[in-house]
Input
Amino acid sequence: MHQNYHFIKQLAPRLHSELAGKQFVEAFSQQKDELIIVFADQENVEELVNPFFIKATLTNSFSCLSFPERFDRARRNSVNLFNDFEGDKVDFVKVCKNERAIQVHFESGRDLIFKLFGNRSNFIAVNVEGEVTQLFNNKLSTDRGLTVASLNREIDQSWEAFVANDGRFEPLFPTFGKVANKYLSGKLAGKEDLAERWTIVQEVLKELESSVFYITKIENIPALTLFETGEIVQVLHDPIEALNAFYLAYIRLSGLDKEKADIVRLLKKRIQQTDNYLENTFQKLVDLENATKNDELANIIMANLHVIPERAEKVELYDFYRDQPITIKLKKDLSAQKNAEGYYRKAKNEKIEIDRLNDSLAAREADRKRLQEHLAHIEAIEMLRDLRAYIKANKLEQGSAAPAIDDLFKRLDFMGYTILIGRNAKNSDLLTKQAHKEDLWFHAKDVTGSHVVVKNQPGRKFPALVIERAAELAAFYSKRKNDSLCPVIVTPKKFVRKPKGLPDGLVLIDKEDIVMVVAKGE
Output
């Protein structure tokens, strides 16, 4: 929480007490992702008077401010930055409202913005006209469009807004962040009364702003929190001291502790993903078991062929399984007997789907057990060499661990087949690239849309209903979504090519068939 808004909200006035009236002496960088800013009451030839140093570490994996008592600049390999501010006096320092950013305003009217957005943190110079003139990290080019006004957000955090959101605190307090959200959600668990929930939210809000800072360990990694959690190492009451203590604790983290924490966090995430999959899949099974069976509907139709009128779209018949009337949907272009045959086919596919879901549950349960065993073994390892050897032997490397397919692409299971849908143009390219040559590939014809892939099952032909369903999805996730009828390209993936230089989402197709469908989502 060292970059949480509610911590920064307490850090900013503390920085104001240190910096107001001081001159900007210099800013320089002598490492790629590190910035040093020096302020002082005045600059003499021999030494600085009451200097104050801000050190910003802004790597992709760790971003943090710290405040060393002194900092000796290297004579070589350092670069001056933000030169326009030299000699300018600080007027005030304040937090941007409801945002993780600090505004340092100078008497000249210029601003230096500390944007503290995790691995997208940056230092931004703004001139008197409010225009961005310099970035510390130029790769974050969108920061050139920021303004002081855009970094101050008005959010209705009243009781009335809480009621309007049905007692959900997240829309009112997007500033809490993951750790505080989890902490507050735990306190709210089982509480349904809105007034009681509001009281708990206000109590946690006071706790977040109480000027008590905890240096703790969460999953073996040092953290700065605003409430008691994890393994408490130190309790502080000054935000600058707290940030310094956290920074030192983090950079002193041993190689074993850090690598173990990384792999433990990864394994716990995979276990949580597996738990979510198991829960969703079990619910699908329950829904299938509780639904009226397609073979029962077919039997009811066959028992009443003589009373079903021609071209009927639905019919009410006697359900002899439950001793009550039942309304059954029919396809008007088919005879009653053909409608029954359709339900028998669905019943066969329904059984295939249930068997597949049961197999999938068993496989995922085995995966979960294996992950738990890895977790227990890793937590007991005491040597870095043994940890790395175990991770390599079991192929648990975080860098090579690809996200689960469920996370990469939209997924639908239909009649025992897996249908994958690209989330956007770049994601669709990835889906097509990862697809097997015998997978079936779909795309709405002549318009932009998602790539859709049906995974091949060796030795089995793709059922017509599966092809139709995938085509419906390709139509739905395209610009033809609202057309009455949509032409969709269908072809084995081996006939789809992506030459170098083509824009995201664009491919060349060597051979194709067209199916006409009505767009239909999940």
Observations:
- The chain is about 35% helix and 25% strand.
- Residues 399-404 have pLDDT under 50 and may be disordered.
- The first helix runs from residue 5 to 19.
- Residues 262 and 508 are 41 Å apart (CA to CA).
